[in-house]
Amino acid sequence: MSPFPDSAIPGPTDSEWSRSSRRAARHATNHELLTWVLGGDGGSGARIASRFLEEFGSLRGMAAASAAQLRVVPGADEKHAVRLEACIELGRRLGYGRPIRRQRVEGPADVARLLMPVLRDADREHFVALLLSTKNHVIDVVTVSVGSLSASIVHPREVWKPAIQASAAAVIVAHNHPTGVAAPSPEDIELTRRLAQCGELIGIRLLDHVIIGDGTYESLKEGGYF
């Protein structure tokens, strides 16, 4: 994502805000959208939005910021940080939703291509399942778990229930490592083996478990872990 073009521009006046607020969101500037998200008006809200833009410089920079960093922006309070966190998380989940559906997945490189843009900067582990058709087209992408800074807690039923409901022929699971290092942990390996065993019992194949790092990925299938 490119940097906000108006990060250093003062907020609009009340009259300017009144006019801009009537426009559809898709026509608004980044500064206006952020002001709306933060629940402000043309005065203090716009100034706080400018401070967030100045602090992080780009959408990606804001999305990569930790919860603590969002809370120390001058003029911002807990309410602003919580709203921004929620907006970023919704955008992240949408990012691996509709644009990915119906695309064909032929290997871990395709999984990384589809998921890395939305998972590489997440400061929590996001465990997702790609539900696939008989021809390996993506039916849906399901967020199974959002964990802590270093781990996500996943039970096999949380993976296989949506797969059964969607009549998926196969599943690929994936999660990110906030450290940026894609090497699998012993827990990742054990979970993958459990998921594969459960898949065999219910007749839905687990094709792979892909770990997303910062610009890198690791396939547990290719690594021979299951």
User: What about the largest sheet?
Assistant: 5 strands, mixed
Structural class: alpha+beta
CATH H-level homologous superfamily name of the largest domain: Cytidine Deaminase, domain 2
CATH class placement of the largest domain: Alpha Beta
User: Can you count the helices?
Assistant: 9
Nearest-integer average pLDDT: 83
From the 3D structure, determine the CATH topology of the largest domain: Cytidine Deaminase, domain 2
General shape: elongated
CATH architecture of the largest domain, by name, is: 3-Layer(aba) Sandwich
Order of helices and strands: HHHHHHHEEHEHEE
Describe this structure in words.
- With 226 residues, this protein is an alpha+beta fold.
- The chain folds into two domains: 14-94, DNA polymerase, domain 1; 96-219, Cytidine Deaminase, domain 2 (3-Layer(aba) Sandwich).
- 42% of the residues lie in helices and 15% in strands.
- It is built from nine helices and five strands; from the N terminus they run H-H-H-H-H-H-H-E-E-H-E-H-E-E.
- The protein has a five-stranded mixed sheet with strand order 2-1-3-4-5, with helices on both faces.
- The longest helix has 18 residues, at 78-95.
- It is elongated, with a radius of gyration of 20 Å.
- The model is unreliable at 1-11 (pLDDT under 50).
Gist of the model:
With 226 residues, the chain is an alpha+beta fold.
Helices and strands, with pairings:
Elements: H1 14-20, H2 30-37, H3 44-56, H4 59-64, H5 67-70, H6 78-95, H7 108-119, E1 126-132, E2 138-146, H8 156-165, E3 170-176, H9 186-202, E4 205-212, E5 217-219
Parallel strand pairs: 3-4
Antiparallel strand pairs: 1-2, 1-3, 4-5
Helix pairs in contact: 2-3
